[in-house]
Prior knowledge:
A two-stranded antiparallel sheet has the order 1-2. The chain has 14 helices and 2 strands; from the N terminus they run ααααααααβααβαααα. Helices cover 44% and strands 2% of the residues. The protein has helices at 2-18, 41-55, 59-72, 103-116, 123-136, 159-165, 173-181, 187-194, 209-212, 226-235, 259-265, 272-275, 281-290, 293-307; strands spanning 201-203, 245-247. The chain folds into 2 domains: 22-166 and 309-331, Peroxidase, domain 1; 192-298, Peroxidase, domain 2. Helix 2 crosses helix 5 and helix 8 (187-194) packs across helix 14 (293-307). The protein has 338 residues and is mostly helical. Residues 1-26 form the signal peptide. It holds the Pfam family peroxidase. InterPro entries: Haem_peroxidase, Haem_peroxidase_sf, Peroxidase_pln, Peroxidases_heam-ligand_BS, Secretory_peroxidase. Ca(2+) 1 binds at residues 70, 73, 75, 77, 79, 91. It comes from Citrus sinensis.
Amino acid sequence: MKKAAGAGSLLLVCLVVFGIIGVCQGGELRKNFYRDSCKSAEDIVRSITWKNAASNPDLPAKLIRMHFHDCFVRGCDASVLINSTAGNKAERDAVPNLSLGGFEVINEIKSELESRCPGIVSCADIVALATRDSVSFQFQKPDLWEVLTGRRDGSVSIAAEADLLLPSPFANFSELKKNFNDKGLTVKDLVVLSGGHTIGVSHCTFFSNRLYNFTGNGDQDPSLDPRYAAFLKTKCKSLADTTTTAELDPGSFRKFDSHYYDILIENKGLFQSDAALLTNKGARNIVMELRNQDKFFTEFAQSMKRMGAMNVLTGTQGEIRKKCSVINNPDSLLHSSI
Ligand code: HEM
Ligand SMILES: *[C@@H]1O[C@H](CO)[C@@H](O)[C@H](O)[C@H]1NC(C)=O
Ligand SMILES: *[C@@H]1O[C@H](CO)[C@@H](O)[C@H](O)[C@H]1NC(C)=O
Ligand SMILES: *[C@@H]1O[C@H](CO)[C@@H](O)[C@H](O)[C@H]1NC(C)=O
Ligand SMILES: *[C@@H]1O[C@H](CO)[C@@H](O)[C@H](O)[C@H]1NC(C)=O
């Protein structure tokens, strides 16, 4: 009751002070939302994430991609965590899901938080915080970027929406720009957030067309460095290979740094969508600037904050899921139709 009243009065303040609701959209996210309701929530997220990151160097890549996929489909509402059911194929079972992972870490954090302060901390906030903490681990710093909290969890997750809304690795610049614009993100956000590809790997499926059959004539993508293409062919031996993976940022795929932009201008970006960032003058200029690591970290922090606030549920919207993989009352919804 108390919380609902708080959310209501905040909205009222927004209306009175700013005159328009627009100013306050996502404005209910704030610093340390759980300060009073679950004091050590953020410390618990960090300690469990760091414990897992210490034994699993691939965790940051898993979580950052999970957070990105979550936010691009129905906003950052942890819809990416919901399991499919008999009547519904959920986001996590969509086509672009191959390397999604880290679910077990989110679940471990959630069950600890449920035992300390039941029903308080959302899965959506856990994903946002754990992503930041996992990436920060290699720096032994609590926060490479600030994460505002107060997100609530959604109850709808549809695979077809993920297929539709997530950008394609085969996209050209104008498609990528539109995809990000549709989410309220700019070309700068696109270039900065693509820097997420400074860590992690991809299956051959998403780039082997560039090696073997770029235009349907058994040709290679001329915008890919030929020597690097030859190397990639030793890994992905044919178009049929769907299981081998290659590093997104060769030589530095576990280090969160600005090296992605260095390999990009050497024409070694793995996806067409990476290479596409060089095909627009404005975007290319941003690529050049982001080779400065301090600049990249500053910009990444800002773009992640924007991405993390996209279409969030706050106040009395949504729910606080008890288990991140299932909505609280599965029977209350008819979510089998698209
Ligand atoms: C710009 C449009 C983007 C496209 C087309 C794209 C596409 C992809 C694809 C196809 C993969 C490989 C998945 C697999 O093999 O299963 C991948 C991996 C990855 N993406 Fe992106 N992505 C984009 C933007 C982003 C953003 C904004 C972030 C985060 C800020 C991100 C972070 C990652 C990470 C960390 C991985 C590696 C995952 C792992 O190693 O498990 N991507 N991406
Ligand atoms: C959700 O699905 C995962 C993977 O299939 C499974 O391990 C987990 O037990 C499921 N969660 C629930 C609450 O059913
Ligand atoms: C991706 O989707 C497939 C097909 O629905 C599913 O079998 C697989 O477990 C999913 N992968 C992850 C990592 O969730
Ligand atoms: C980008 O791709 C879209 C869809 O395939 C196509 O219609 C458009 O012409 C392409 N744009 C450029 C500049 O190649
Ligand atoms: C290359 O693409 C063309 C046109 O789409 C297709 O007919 C051909 O079978 C492809 N080659 C291979 C090896 O898949």
